Amino acid sequence: MIFVIGIATFLSTLLGGLFALHLKDRLHLVLGFSAGAILGVAFFDLLPEALELAGTQYSITLITSLIGLGFAAYMLLDRLILLHTHNEDAEDAHGTGRGPVGAGSISFHSMLDGLGIGLALQISTALGAVLAVAVFAHNFSDGINTVNMILKNKGTRGQAARWLLADALAPTVGIFITFFISISQANLGLLLALFAGFLLYVGASDLLPESHHAHPVRWTTISTILGMVVLYAIISFAQI
After folding, report:
1. Where along the chain do its domains lie?
2. Would you call 1 exposed, middle or buried from its count of C-beta atoms within 10 A (0-12, 13-18, 19+)?
3. Contact call for residues 168 and 10 (beta carbons, < 8 A)
4. pTM of the predicted model, to two decimals?
5. Cα 169 from chain centroid?
6. For the ranges 41-50, 148-157, 188-197, which has the lowest average pLDDT?
């Protein structure tokens, strides 16, 4: 199971990078669907699971506070370290140095995605599989962002390909690390709450704006709702 998920996350990231290189005009629909999928996992799976697991030992206030902390922490990572922006002219103004720094940071949080999957698999195969679906969607966007980060900052296609490979391998590294980590279910619930905050930020503050940036809102909105519906169906099926 872990081997299959590792291969799937690798291919998802590569596919995102290839889309960024060759099919840029169609990305808004894919990113809209990805945003819906990530929000669907956060709302319909991670939040209920975090409350169920951690609620036996910790207060609801602590659990929901960790969700907010995860959201804020990821925002700081995104804005202060990744320096994420939707303004292409601003991106170009930073020059070549920002490209490797941004791509390396993206690879680091891709590794965190792998950690989330590995920890979820310690709870149940179904939870790990559902979270993996969200990570596939996130990794697809990461592949896009990695390639764009290098190319928009005067890097070569060869450099973009090398960073894309590093980003594609990062989630598998994260999953592998969890082989050496053992955490109680209540504490895993707290980590899931934190990770839910991560996904809420990625979906609402990153993918959603990027999906309808310079594109018609109607179809990207439909794509987002479709992503949420599909993930709700997958989660409901996994819990049967």
Report:
1. 2-8+29-238
2. exposed
3. yes
4. 0.66
5. 14
6. 148-157
